Amino acid sequence: MQDFFRNASESLKSDEMDEHSLHLARLEHEGETRKTMNEAYMKLEAGKKKLESIIGKKRERLAGLGPQLAELLDKARPVQEFLDLGVSITKNKEQLQLAR
């Protein structure tokens, strides 16, 4: 009851309200509050869906990088051997598998 008098608009409050009018005013205030909360929820839900879409696209991109990196390692093997870098291709492939 105190919450209603504290938060309701002035048009809904009156000092000379009977019990029935007060009940109707409280219901109207509750309806307005629910409508406002529903609008906020819908905005948040739309933002959530947008973020989920962005995350899904990024996951697809990252999933496609694994095969590309493996191919790059295979193609770089002759250069690594020529330069005698001492880098173990199999070790790099193991690290790539762990990263997946």
Task: Please describe the structure with a list of short key phrases separated by commas or semicolons.
mainly alpha, 82% helix, 0% strand
Structure commentary:
- With 100 residues, this protein is mainly α.
- The protein contains 3 helices and no strands.
- The protein has helices at 2-7, 19-83, 89-99.
- The mean pLDDT is 81.
Secondary structure elements and pairings:
Layout: H1 2-7, H2 19-83, H3 89-99
Helix pairs in contact: 2-3
Order of helices and strands: HHH
What's the multimeric state? Answer: single chain
Number of domains: 1
How many E strands? Answer: 0
Output the number of helix runs. 3
Provide the β-strand percentage band.
under 5%
Structural class: mainly alpha
Provide a short characterization of the protein structure:
The protein has 100 residues and is an all-alpha fold.
